[in-house]
Amino acid sequence: MSFMAYMAEYNRYMQILGIAVVFGVAFLFSNNKRRVNYGLIVKALVTQFILAWFMLKTTIGSSIMQAIANAVAQLYVASQAGISFVFGALGVNQPPWGAVFALQVLPFIIFFGAFMALLFHIGIIQWCVRLVALVVRPVFGTSGAETLCGIANSFLGQTEAPLLVRNYLERMTRSEIFFIMVGGMGHISGSLLAIYHSQGVPIQHLLSASIMALPATILVAKTMCPEVEQPETAGSAIPNMEAKTTNMLDAISSGTGDGLKLALNVGAMLVAFIALIATVNMLIGWVVGQVNSGPWQVFSLPNFTLESLFGYLLSPVGWLLGLTGPDALAAGKLIGLKVVGNEFIAYLEMVKTAFSDDRAIVILTYALCGFSNFSSIGIQIGGIGSLAPSKRQLLSEFGFRAVLGGVLVNLLTAMVAGLLI
Q1: 18: number of CA atoms within 13 Å, CB side?
Q2: 3-state DSSP call for residue 98?
Q3: Which of 75-89, 174-188, 337-351 has the highest mean predicted lDDT (pLDDT)?
């Protein structure tokens, strides 16, 4: 197949335009356009393409991602032993109860929280982070502290990763703080990757998206907020990552508690946001009914919902992802749901949506793979702000720009992946 034919297939040329648009939007919202390091931008984009090519197009890369995916799937199976013991028949997807989300899905977050804490105590996570950092920091020239936090976001959540650099947060530059915020918005935690997979989201692409988000974060964050100060850990080695737990049992106990908090938070957020979206849809329906049936009727409004409104407003984003027709509208709806609600709601809706082919699902898996939503602003202000009180005002100042940065990170990752699949 010729290059032109390849680009025309699946409208891949739109994804080239989309990459340019992502950089253009990041540049438009840059707080210091003259200090943007274009060499760094090119390095980040090239690195993302190399990672995507390795994971999606090579036998070795695909095998590694499949092996990790199989390991995660086995962990999910193992968690069912504990879930079934505590909840009995309620914890098993079978009649008469069927799938009970709160009892069959959320408890896995508790198990995975304990598992990740155990890996951190043993030192496996630190070893993985240091291994990646040996390549990332020299290539991009990012500071040791922000590099550590950025890589940790691929394993941990947006409030857990900053804990690794808590001793440096108070003295971090504006660019470093913004990088940490965008990194948190552009990734999702490892425990949630497995949860989304249990709902039908392809795990290999969730893993790839989490890894590819790091160079995308560097590109977007360092465009929107270039470094103009001297970071304390510039040019230095990666800061030490000592486990705070005293032994393995302490690690398991601590991780279980953290997992419980996360599971409760996820459940509460789903209840609240799904109910609020339903409330807004009821209000929209009432307004449409009043306009269309009242004695003051001047014109007729079509029936629509918040989701369909997002679909039409954000359908251009779907086009830039290479999608067309109903798929583009569905993509706009899902991205809107993710930003206003969260990625959990968007993924649950995605697996129920009828797309023209599986490729659209894969692309949207990348586009939705991040915590970039409005509620994350409060989470980061509360979480990072408690570790660095002097940065709380800066966190508030960067809040909405960080959400935009996270959305751009996810879209850029989806566009790069879309060019190779």
Answers
A1: 28
A2: strand
A3: 174-188
